[in-house]
């Protein structure tokens, strides 16, 4: 059976989602999980974009094995040098260089003639080839480009040494049949196409990213570019889990296979959601909370009689298992440690005892400590490496009271505290944090949901906060929803601080 390669760009295109700002540690954690998931190529970032991006890519290239590591570079010498500097330590490095080829992009954005664009593309690939053998060339906005011009550019870059040609639907404008026909025409006209791999990269502006990518499989492309949970610029990219499970479940239609370990899909999806702060919509295919839930009586009846009546794939295939051992207040160290290991949550030395005592406190407040709770407890341990941590929180509010919050924070070994009033207790707490730190966050989005089902579920808050021009997301979990809100806001503050977007005023 033909093998399709999966090129994951969660850490590059996905990281370009508004509000997402991962630090190097978080990127590394996701990269290790992507390698476990079995992606063939992992696009680690855009090294020229910022020193933080460079560092994230460099560390992934050094530390993550069993996967090709790609770095993005515009078609110019500075970007390519920087990309190479970042990935030269990788087991199997790839430089991914791009330039736009559509009339609209060449005229208005690049302000270059088609001949100049062709020349720049060839020079860029030549330079990249002098550094590494694996070169991917992308024609940005390919799907709105002239077929003959695009074939000329592709023929030129193949001669210059490109090994992968990517034909993106950058603005998510294509429709499946049209896109397949366009790809077919390009492949027929490009000289040397048989020597390279052909890739597609589809955006979801019309909700067609997955459909377009699957149409491309039908015309024989070799590589699909996608992101976990479909995150990415604007409406996002083709969702990895949807592509992989469509190919897996409908092998009869597509006749291809991937190297993805499907049992790692749910875990990867949850990790990406937690670290990016991008919630997964409940009805999202494959990984949404309701994707395997059956509500109506008729459906439940059918399921009880024969699962295949309403279930086209088993949740266990993507790694959702009903746990046989329930963790609660009577559970001991061994059971908790075993579950953490099963979940791939490997804590740093000495962190387990702290997690276990937090586990016991939580188990006193809730009947069952779920997998999501364990992920949150493990996250808390990682947050200990944050520079700004919550020390204490006190709020008062009520029908006839002015909502007031006092927040104590630990910053560089100092205990800092202040109080503020607000429209409600959450607003008061966020204002108190800003007062303590001398920051000015503008809350753009706030959402609260239960982490799992059940009346004693923990509250999960996600926020997007603007600091100056920069938007950053944060997530917090607690049995107390005000505390969850404060933790989410502090995560956003920590991310903005580590990126150099805010300064903390010395007291
Ligand atoms: O959408 C796009 O065209 C891209 C390229 C850089 C591949 O992300
Ligand atoms: Zn893109």
From TrEMBL:
Gene3D superfamilies, per the entry: 1.10.238.260, 3.30.160.270, Aldolase class I
Which EC class is the enzyme in?
transferase
A single GO molecular-function term is:
manganese ion binding
Biological pathway: Amino-acid biosynthesis; L-leucine biosynthesis; L-leucine from 3-methyl-2-oxobutanoate: step 1/4
Can you list the GO cellular component terms from the UniProt entry? cytoplasm
Task: Spell out the CDD domains in the cross-references.
Answer: DRE_TIM_IPMS
- List cofactor names only: Mn(2+)
| EC number(s) reported in the record | 2.3.3.13
Domain Pyruvate carboxyltransferase: start-end pairs = 4-266
Q: According to its UniProt record, what is one Pfam family this protein matches?
A: LeuA_dimer
Source organism, top-level taxon:
Bacteria
Residue positions annotated to bind Mn(2+) are 13, 201, 203, 237
Q: Which residues form a coiled coil?
A: none
Q: Tell me which PANTHER family the record gives.
A: 2-ISOPROPYLMALATE SYNTHASE 1, CHLOROPLASTIC-RELATED, HOMOCITRATE SYNTHASE-RELATED
NCBIfam families on file = leuA_bact (TIGR00973), PRK00915.1-3 (NF002086)
Summarize the protein's role.
Catalyzes the condensation of the acetyl group of acetyl-CoA with 3-methyl-2-oxobutanoate (2-ketoisovalerate) to form 3-carboxy-3-hydroxy-4-methylpentanoate (2-isopropylmalate).
Subunit structure, interactors included: Homodimer.
**What name does the UniProt record give this protein?**
2-isopropylmalate synthase
- This protein's species is Desulfosporosinus lacus DSM 15449
